[in-house]
Design brief:
single chain, 6 strands
Length: 140
């Protein structure tokens, strides 16, 4: 009986900590790394190929907007790439999301600090592969 109560208390404390981290991320004022550029090449084709080879899946596609995600919020925070297209102008937004079930917070891959450091580092590495493929500046 004591073990069951201890497990429930631990689970509630863990959930509380996730929500605190999500609040910290939300209030940092640095929700994503954005890159705006123009290109006449097949940027969407290159992004789709990159996504497939790096384990990202298309989770949303609307008129001029595409969102790719890697991970399911199980053992690691999900990583995102949002693409906004307007003619030959593209905006790429790279971020990791902390989902505390009650509160969600996005954090840029280049943010400082300890919050979701491993997923940010993993995402930064793969997003830099895409940026290099597109001939754009790399995340530092």
């Amino acid at each position: 009986m004591g073990m069951l109560i201890g497990g429930m208390i631990g689970a509630l404390l863990g959930l509380g900590l996730l929500n605190v981290m999500a609040l910290i991320a939300r209030n940092r004022g640095n929700p994503c790394d954005a890159l705006v550029f123009r290109s006449s090449e097949d940027v969407i084709g290159k992004i789709d190929a990159w996504a497939k080879s790096n384990g990202y899946r298309l989770v949303r596609s609307d008129d001029g907007f595409r969102s790719y995600q890697k991970g399911y919020n199980f053992l690691t925070a999900p990583m995102f790439l949002d693409v906004i297209r307007s003619g030959d102008e593209y905006t790429l937004k790279s971020y990791v999301q902390i989902n505390g079930l009650v509160v969600k917070g996005d954090i840029a891959l280049t943010a400082s600090g300890f919050l979701v450091k491993l997923p940010r580092a993993m995402a930064k590495k793969t997003h830099n592969l895409l940026r290099a493929e597109l001939g754009q500046t790399l995340l530092q």
